[in-house]
What we know:
By secondary structure, the chain is mainly alpha-helical. Helices cover 35% and strands 6% of the residues. It contains 5 helices and 2 strands; from the N terminus they run H-E-H-E-H-H-H. It has a two-stranded antiparallel sheet. It is flat and about 45 Å long.
Amino acid sequence: INAEYMGAQFFIDMREEGHLNNTVTFLMADHGQHMGPYWALRVGRLEHKLPLLLMMVPNELLRRHPRVAEALRHNQQSLLTPWDIYATLRHFASLPNDPPTNDTYPFGPPCARSLLERVPYNRTCEDAAIPHYRCICGKEWPDH
C-alpha cells in the first residue's frame, strides 16, 4: 500500500460516510522536489517554493456564507502563507462571527490573513512576511 492509495481511500471513506458534507478539509505539501533534473527547471524551482494547498469546503457552508465562497474563489491566485492557513482555521472556528483579531489571540503575526476574506492580489512577500530566499515575486527563474 502506498501513500496515494491511502490518501484516496481516506477521501472515499469520508465521502461514503457523509463526512465531506460537514467537514472542511485541507491537503497540503511542504514543498516540491529538492534536487534532480526536475528541480533544475524553472517549474521545479517554483514548485519547491509554491507547495500544494487544496481546501475542500462543504457546499452547504458555501451556500450559507456567499462572501466566504466569493473570497475563496478570489484567493485561488493570491500569495498565501502557512500563517494564513492558521488564521483561516481560527476564522472557520468563529463562524458565523467575524474572525478573531491578532489583538485578542496573540499567536500569529499581524500579516496573517484569513482565506475566508479577500487577500489582495498585489500582496508582496514583504507584506506576507515571506523571507527573501523563499520569495518568488518579481523574480526571473531561467532554466539551467
